[in-house]
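Hey,

The postdoc asked me to send both predictions to you directly instead of through the lab channel. I've kept everything plain text so nothing gets mangled by the mail client. Protein one:
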Amino acid sequence: MRKFHKKKGPRKSFKRILAHNLIMKGRIETTEAKAKDIKPVVEKAITLAKKNNLASLRLLLSRLTKDSANKLYYELAPKYKDRNSGYLRIMKISGQRKRDAASMVLIEFV
């Protein structure tokens, strides 16, 4: 488990914000460690949204922000109805971040 030099509360909030940005924008550029950390979170959320019942919507609302949960439930889940898994793709970008040389990646929906 990656901790990103944060305590539990800030780390949970950090993951929620990253997942929100990914869901709302469709793709984000981030570090490899962050992308690998939020990929299972978002993929499990899509699988939950595909169940298409009230309980899954309420669970999404408790785990994500309201806007991202609604977009996931009403727009993205029907798109991936026939797909079993592998909703996200991580592609490495040439170059590194200047200040700390962290490898950058692009995470996006397939």
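Protein two:
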Amino acid sequence: MRIPIAKQGYPFILPLGILTLALALFGLVWVTAVVGLLFLFVVYFFRDPEREIPNDPKVVVSPADGKVVEITTEKDPFMGKTFTRISIFLNVFNVHVNRVPVGGVIADTRYNPGKFMNAFNDKASLDNEQNILLIRDGETEVLVKQIAGLIARRIVCWAKPGDIYQPGQRFGLIRFGSRVDIFLPQDTTLKVARGDKVAGGSSIIGYLP
């Protein structure tokens, strides 16, 4: 049976768990309570629940849990093409495991160092540290950006060029608050609006043409 915790969380969870137990054995009640609460928060942060993935070849699922903070049309410098960009803000209480929005081949990845502005800021999509994933399925190309935020300083991506992914499959995570942008073809039929809350892998962002 799979434990619903991202494995990248164990280097944080295990030491805090051991420290909490040690403090409790020494009878340090208040310190134990504080460290214990931190331990519970970290376990909660790295949770990785299973999701029911919609079964439709044209569906685009959300790449992350969070809130849709922006929907706009812009040219992405990575591809030089005009896309519809949907930006999803993840606060520290959201699940931070990221999932591919569509199935296909990982055609390219690119890491860009940058700033650490608040991920809610519109300029974060261009200026912040980010990891870019290009997914290609036939002639359809979709971009996903993992963007570091004010607190998030560690982007994790397991996907490599040439890997084949199914819709909703896990491909990485961002630690402690962040943002994920998805760039879709302009003629995609969107099913979300600004302010909507979405769940990675299960919420439908739209349908490809």
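Summary for protein two, as requested: Residues 7-45 form one domain.

Thanks,
C.
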